[in-house]
Specification:
The chain is an alpha+beta fold. It is built from 14 helices and 51 strands. Among the domains are: 224 residues, Sandwich (Immunoglobulin-like), CATH 2.60.40.1760; 124 residues, Sandwich (Immunoglobulin-like). Strand 17 and strand 18 form a beta hairpin.
Length: 811
């Protein structure tokens, strides 16, 4: 006997016709509402708000009144004061003018066009549409001169033209090949650069969004499958302007603790207390600088967060005490999954207070992760974030000031790899499904962690590392690029991944040095450490069943190479720290693609295997085995080989000699790079000295150093120094000067050693100073005077630190 199930619609093979997308129709009129404009259409309306003259928000909505507040915590509500545009109407269009752009909305089609004040096309959005299933899409004109950047940590080349990506935070242990559309981070901000200039588009929607620069030859599309089409247009005209405005909108990093800029050593896992202490001692015995050891999941009691396994780690207090004497810090992993166990305090409290994620009917969401069946905190609720953050007192009481957030996409061991989409998040009274808020989960976990640590640490800066995130995560955490492989291809791919993260507003980033999974080799580790030593986040990390890859794991040659580049990182700490300060003020990346500094050079639009540290250090890593030469592109200007002193004038390509111990590096003429004495960890007390390397072969040089105490928030009240050093040719010789642009640190007794590199004249005297042997000036921090190293072509000057000084060097 048949039942009605026989005709179940899912058994039908009839073709279901797609319903054509709907559009707003024609634009009818414009009305003002407080600081915004509403463009009324036949079938939908558009909210328009100018946050400043070069940044506006457009939001498609139905009904009479839009939701004016920002869609997510990604946007800093107080970062802008909305401005009025000059609004006019013609028979064909509505037009809005600011000092830097014209926005034109065609009445008949509702198409949006952005032009410069001179009438040059910057952006055109021909269509904005939606379907009855809830997806929304906008199309945008692209030309043969279009190049695309940003979108976070996506794989493939630097330029994303010809690619398609999904914004859906995903736990991807499978190899990160260029075709992967979604990874751990979702940063829905795209920079479009073309002949007229550059602009950014930020779609503030934490559900799934898709950016397609592949399907259509002359259009790219931005689509969301749920939620709202809430788009910010960010005018350049240069890429730097876009990054600056975007990070003003979504926030910039706070100054991290200086120790977090040091070298980090990690493994899944260092299994017990004895192994951790032996590791720390080995770093000190081998004189390899290191600040941090990471603890992966095996430190916990049955993978319960906020616990230590009493058998593996019987004395955490004693371990931390010895590590402190060695100048080492611990950063333990903390995942969001809370083991389902009524005897487990964290689980019991979460249940009692309703802090875990639930379905609409009230059923608790339980997913399998490392502890087995687990509940997940609802970080969209402020009360839950506060509760979770307070639990970190367990670590703070042990002296731990850094936390590693992992598995926070959130990852779940099921078919979908994440939380059920119909889970309901409280969202502080504005409840939404997990499908709508998925990409926010990791950032809100990091927010809870960071804000509570900052409160608990009595003025000391915390460090938080996260795998998952959304726009704005840079305010709370550093980011690493997830579970890569010990493949040469993955080493190469790390460069554009980190560069595009920087262009997406996230400057504190880096990959797992040496590769996480598979088996590294001595050559690969040496080459990857050379590159990683210049990355903002510098951590060696490997998987449980791989060969060991600590710096000494592959013999003396590899160890010596790793040591030398890690030492370079520590000597260059003033350079790195100053760039972090710049990132905190302007949003500029620490590691930069050449296109950011040279946007009009066609050779660098997709240059994916070189990078700049700041604007003055060019690095060209070797990412192939058994390779001693590589092509290097030298951009415009004069660049000096860091190792040999050879000068190159660009733009041109050169063939660089790069034996295993050499990563090609070039310093831009006119740069001043500061160094400090070598330390084994960032807080180590050394001789009070600062070395200024002046590359003045172009006749001029200038550089700045930012310094503070490296650990507290005193800099927010002015407790910091900014020192500017300059040099310029004068009467056949040189005038050298430095000044404190800001002096807020207590007076100290230190010396400055100034090295004028590759001088183009032979000095006869330095006014007011006696001449000494070069070895004395270079090696004795108490000596004062000058010397000339004829073999190196280097002028050395040693002076006590002073608020302001001018020196004349006579030829």
């Amino acid at each position: 006997m048949q039942t009605s199930e026989t005709i179940h619609p899912d058994k039908s093979i009839d073709t279901v016709l797609e319903v054509a997308p709907k559009a707003p129709g024609s634009a009818i009129r414009v009305t003002e509402h407080d600081d915004s404009y509403i463009i009324h259409g036949q079938h939908a309306n558009l909210l328009l708000t100018f946050l400043e003259s070069g940044l506006f928000r457009i939001k498609l909505f139905h009904g009479s009144k839009p939701q004016f507040k920002a869609a997510t915590p990604a946007v800093l509500a107080d970062s802008f004061q909305p401005v009025k545009a000059d609004c006019s109407e013609s028979p064909e269009a509505f037009e809005f003018r600011t000092s830097v752009l014209r926005l034109i909305i065609e009445k008949e089609t509702f198409a949006l066009t952005v032009e410069t004040p001179e009438g040059e096309l910057m952006m055109k959005q021909p269509t904005l549409s939606w379907t009855t299933r809830g997806s929304l899409s906008g199309s945008y004109v692209m030309g043969t001169d279009s190049h695309f950047y940003g979108l976070g940590e996506k794989t493939s080349f630097l330029d994303k033209r010809g690619e398609r990506y999904a914004m859906w935070n995903s736990d991807v242990f499978a190899p990160h090949v260029p075709e992967i559309e979604a990874l751990y981070e979702s940063i829905p901000m795209l920079i479009h650069m073309h002949q007229t200039g550059s602009y950014g588009l930020f779609l503030d929607n934490p559900g799934r969004t898709d950016f397609d620069m592949r399907t259509h030859p002359d259009l790219f599309t931005i689509q969301c499958t749920t939620g709202e089409y809430d788009l910010y247009f960010i005018f350049g005209p240069q890429p730097k302007d876009v990054v600056g405005r975007y990070t003003k909108l979504t926030g910039r990093i706070s100054m991290p603790p200086k120790w977090s800029l040091g070298y980090h050593q990690s493994r899944y896992s260092y299994m017990n207390q004895q192994e951790v202490l032996e590791l720390a001692r080995t770093f000190r015995e081998r004189n390899i600088p290191c600040d941090v050891i990471h603890l992966d999941i095996h430190y916990m009691d049955q993978y319960r967060v906020f616990t230590f396994d009493k058998d593996r780690f019987p004395d955490p207090e004693g371990m931390m005490a010895e590590l402190k004497k060695l100048g080492m810090r611990i950063v333990p992993i903390v995942d969001p999954g809370v083991k389902k166990d009524p005897k487990y305090t964290i689980y019991r409290e979460g249940i009692e207070h309703g802090y875990f994620c639930k379905k609409l009917e009230g059923e608790l969401f339980i997913g399998d992760v490392w502890p087995g069946k687990s509940a997940f905190p609802d970080f969209t609720e402020d009360a839950v974030g506060k509760w979770w953050g307070e639990k970190h007192k367990f670590y703070v009481d042990l002296g731990i000031t850094g936390i590693w957030n992992d598995m926070n996409e959130p990852a779940v061991f099921n078919e979908s790899k994440t939380m059920d989409l119909d889970v309901i998040h409280g969202n502080n009274g504005d409840s939404k499904t997990h499908e709508e808020l998925h990409n926010l989960y990791g950032m809100m976990m990091s927010k809870a962690t960071y804000e509570s640590l900052r409160e608990q640490l009595d003025g000391e800066r915390p460090f938080v590392l996260t795998r998952a995130g959304y726009s704005g995560v840079q305010r709370y955490a550093a980011v690493w690029t997830g579970d890569n492989r010990s493949f040469w291809e993955h080493m190469a791919m790390a460069i554009p991944m980190v560069l595009n993260l920087g262009l997406s507003g996230i400057p504190f980033t880096g990959p797992d040095i040496g590769g996480f999974a598979h088996h590294s080799t001595g050559q690969l580790l040496a080459r990857w450490t050379q590159m990683g030593a210049l990355f903002p986040f510098c951590r060696n990390h490997s998987v449980i069943d791989s060969v060991r890859q600590e710096p000494w794991s592959f013999g003396e040659e590899t160890e010596a190479i790793c040591r030398s580049y890690i030492e370079l990182r520590y000597r260059w700490m003033p350079v790195l720290y100053t760039l972090f300060h710049e990132a905190s003020r302007t949003g500029m990346p620490i590691l930069r693609p050449l296109v950011l500094e040279y946007p009009h050079d066609p050779q660098v639009t997709n240059l994916s295997d070189q990078f700049l540290l700041g604007s003055s250090v060019l690095a060209a890593p070797v990412y192939r085995p058994d390779t001693e030469h590589r092509a290097v592109y030298i951009p415009e200007g004069e660049w000096i080989d860091y190792w040999t002193g050879e000068k190159h004038t660009g733009p041109k390509h050169i063939l660089a000699h790069a034996p295993l111990h050499i990563m090609p590096m070039y310093i831009k003429a006119g740069a001043v790079l500061a160094e400090e004495p070598l330390k084994q960890h960032a807080d180590e007390e050394t001789a009070a000295a600062l070395t200024w390397n002046v590359y003045a072969s172009a006749g001029r040089a200038e550089g700045t150093v930012y310094e503070d105490d490296g650990i507290t928030y005193g800099y927010e009240q002015g407790t910091y120094n900014v020192i500017r050093m300059s040099a310029e040719a004068a009467d056949g010789g040189m005038k050298l000067a430095w000044t404190y642009e800001h002096k807020g640190l207590p007076e100290g007794d230190r010396s400055f050693l100034i090295r004028i590199k590759h001088a183009e004249f032979v000095p006869a005297a330095v006014e007011g100073l006696r001449r000494h042997e070069a070895g004395l000036i270079a090696g004795d921090s108490s000596a004062a005077g000058w010397a000339y190293d004829e073999a190196a072509g280097e002028i050395l000057i040693r002076m006590p630190d002073a608020p302001q000084q001018v020196l004349h060097i006579r030829a």
